[in-house]
Amino acid sequence: MSDxxxxxxxxxxxxxxxxxxRGHQRVEVLHSLSVxxxxxxxxxxxxxxxxxxxxxxxxxxxxxxxxxxxxxxCGQRLETLSSGGLAAWRARHVGxxxxxxxxxxxxxxxxxxxxxxxxxxLNAAQRARHVEAALAIVGLSDRARHKPGELSGGQQxxxxxxxxxxxxxxxxxxxxxxxxxxxxxxxxxxxxxRELADLGKTIVMVTHDPKAADYxxxxxxxxxxxxxxxxxxxxxxx
Amino acid sequence: MKYFPLLWGALWRxxxxxxxxxxxxxxxxxxxxxxxxxxxxxxxxxxKSGADRLVTTGKYxxxxxxxxxxxxxxxxxxxxxxxxxxxxxxxxxxxERNFFAQFPADVATYLELYPEILLPVxxxxxxxxxxxxxxxxxxxADRFGWKVxxxxxxxxxxxxxxxxxxxxxxDLVGIFDARTAAERAQQEMMLFHHDYFDEARxxxxxxxxxxxxxxxxxxxxxxxxxxxxxxxANSPSxxxxxxxxxxxxxxxxxxxxxGFIISSIMGAVLFTLLMLTGNTMMQSxxxxxxxxxxxxxxxxxxxxxxxxxxxxxxxxCLVSAALGVGxxxxxxxxxxxxxxxxxxxxxLRPQTWLHAMAIASLLALLVGALPALRAMRLDxxxxxxxx
Lengths: 238, 387
Hints:
The complex is a heterodimer of chains A (238) and B (387). With 238 residues, chain A is an alpha/beta fold. Chain A has one domain (11-231): Rossmann fold, CATH 3.40.50. Chain A has 7 helices and 10 strands. Chain A has helices at residues 53-60, 83-93, 109-114, 124-137, 153-165, 183-198, 210-213, and strands at residues 11-22, 25-37, 42-46, 68-73, 76-77, 94-97, 171-175, 202-206, 218-223, 226-231. A 6-stranded mixed beta sheet of chain A has the order 6-7-8-3-9-10. Chain A has a 4-stranded antiparallel beta sheet with strand order 2-1-4-5. The radius of gyration of chain A is 18 Å and the shape is globular. Chain B has 2 domains: 4-45 and 257-386, no CATH class; 48-255, no CATH class. Helices cover 55% and strands 15% of the residues of chain B. Chain B has helices spanning 4-11, 15-47, 70-75, 107-113, 121-129, 138-144, 181-186, 194-200, 221-231, 244-255, 258-287, 289-297, 302-335, 350-376, 380-386; strands at residues 53-58, 66-67, 80-86, 101-105, 133-137, 151-155, 167-176, 189-193, 207-208, 210-215, 239-243. In chain B, the strands form 3 sheets. A 5-stranded mixed beta sheet of chain B has the order 4-8-5-7-6. The longest helix of chain B has 34 residues, at 302-335. Chain B starts with a helix and ends with a helix.
């Protein structure tokens, strides 16, 4: 990761600010933030509660819009897209992993993984092949017909990872992906995310856990909406 | 179709809630099917009425009796083929719950004008030769266990005998049937001789209730009716002549506007259903806020989420409505033989299915609209943050 790379970064934030209005109060969440992330980076966003890391993640994932500044991800300036355009962009470019998995409890693991593919032109047989492959990658081929309630927390998170991967997105954003898992299972999930990064996927992960952050290639520390520290692949502090 | 598992899964997320709501819709549409079939039975009499018969009654009221002397005069009107007459007896067999129509009539001409009444020849002969004879519909004979040779006591409520007694007795000499269920429903009655009735009754002698006229040319119905009415326009008993269909409809209207009553009942039922199902759908969407937010997160557009919730509502309403009307279709033929003959014409017509599906679609739209809009407007960040 660098502040201004020569090659096109996959994520470029320029002077991004974000504020919310609650009643008559204006709450500043991010202050004039500029960040570049290179393809294949595994970036951990860290900081205390309220530091703005989840807001930053939402901006990168196209779930929210900046109050000021520009967010360019996968070559697209997100603030220029309509709501529908942003939804289509997310479907094409981003996979999401949440702390509490957010699987649909009434669907089997396979049907949960298939959800992003419903938005593509793939036919049922092609979708089934992609789902099978995604579940095989996370080692859950034998749990395809199980519903989330029949799976452990770690297995559910692996299903969520398969869902994030199945449409082959360039970017995977994770919000506390191991926050609800025990240490061993968390290590498995993080190791898996690291492998994905090694394979060229760009991963942005919000975490409180320094051990989880150790799996990342880069770290950004935020406090009160500002970047207070950036640690690169070589451990160099910027 | 690729979204079907998603819809089906959402529908069964809370099984008891879906089952109870679905059952409410099933029962409402079962009632709809039964009431529509009942309405069909009620109206089938007027719809199947003879296209070449006129009915002449008192101008101001069905209860106004007419002089018997009109019989010959109507017979002589240009365009009239044959005439018969009948009256309302209004008697009671054992209890008032056993209601059925009894008509003193000129039986010979009556049977000529109503070929749909199927009476064996020997029984017809017996009827014509028996002064106190009566013939009844097969549905009535089956209902009360009557057989030829029985003596049927009827308690008069309008027409006492000359000695003041209300007890009339008739000898059952014939049991008739009809060609179709609708005709069977229309002809559920008892016929006996007007001459015997007129001779034995205490008052009203020389009068009849109404005349029925067979016209020579059905295309001349209105002209013949106008001639009959004109003939008695300045008499003490002016008349009103109308087609048998119009007469039957007017008679049914005396019972009340059945269509309005049925519409009112169904309106109340559907309004309740609207509130109940609407509440269920709102609750269902409230429960699934995080799931809907996830769908939007992974790229479902606002319109797609709106469509999904509406489709879910449509699936529940249409499937349940079809089950309800289907149940009515199964029950009607099972129930009909155990009901009075007036219900013999109960049937579920194709348009009832169409009406039911149209109502169910409207219901789905009304109950699904608000939750669907709420789902569509869901803010992903807030929805995920709250869960």
